[in-house]
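Supplementary notes for students who missed Thursday's class. We covered one full example, reproduced here. Read the sequence, then the structure, then the short commentary at the end.
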Amino acid sequence: MVRVLATDGMAKSAVDELKAKGYEVIEQHYEPDELCEAIKDVDVIVVRSATKVREPIIDAAAEAGRLKMIIRGGVGVDNIDVKYAEDKGIEVRNTPAASSASVAELTLGHMFSLARFIGIANYTMREGKWEKKAYKGTELAGKTLGLIGMGRIARELAKRAEAIGMKIMYFDIFEIPGLPESYVKSTKEDILKEADYVSLHIPMPADKKPVISAEDLATMKPTAYILNLARGGLIDEDDLCDALDNGVIAGAALDVYPSEPATNERVLSNPKISLTPHIGGSTKEAQDRIGGEICKHIYDKFE
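Structure (token representation):
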């Protein structure tokens, strides 16, 4: 019997489907030392962002010789030493399309929250404050959204943003075929200078250094906002807080952090940052789609 270990949970629909087809599914989270042992007795490990599959864990799996596949339920595989695993004969797969719409919608939600003070107004009202005059917002219609990276999520966001009247600028190192003529291809530098909202949709660089630092933020308009729902650490958090405290930019939104749970008190206490706890793909629809893609990867390997 093929044994599947899901360390960070998996959609019930996928678990039920696998079990119905005769697969054994173990849903349990392990700390790294424990995972080195548990991974020896499974054929597939399915992870989200919480579990890190690094070299010692891969070594333990390779030594036992049973593990055939690592599946990341989500887009990025930063938490897996992919090449190391593949060099050991262990396949690595992910589910890149399943959560695109969910992340795009959350990004748009953060944009609305920033434009209309939804998050902070909700909080102050619960403190008994009625600060109507403090929350004079702006409309998204007519504003420019700058997308750094034009992958699946960015394209889903662009469609939704254009539908409410926003103008779209984008930068990507690759040529993206089939984009609407209304989208304006630009440079990262011009997007930072011109866009009212800048949203990051890129992987973490190999050197793990921030892509956006104080120098980049200084080129943005003082009325502009920056959003990161892609990878924790793409924006230098202290540089971001400095920029917000000094009025360099108007606000920011984060769903991802260099370490999770987030611990930077400057970020957590800053009223100009709209925060969510890495929930970009956390919708029922996305989880069902992710589960479906996970099942397909498993069937392709073992059936």
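Commentary. The mean pLDDT is 96. The chain has two domains: 3-96+283-302, 100-275. If anything here is unclear, bring it to office hours.
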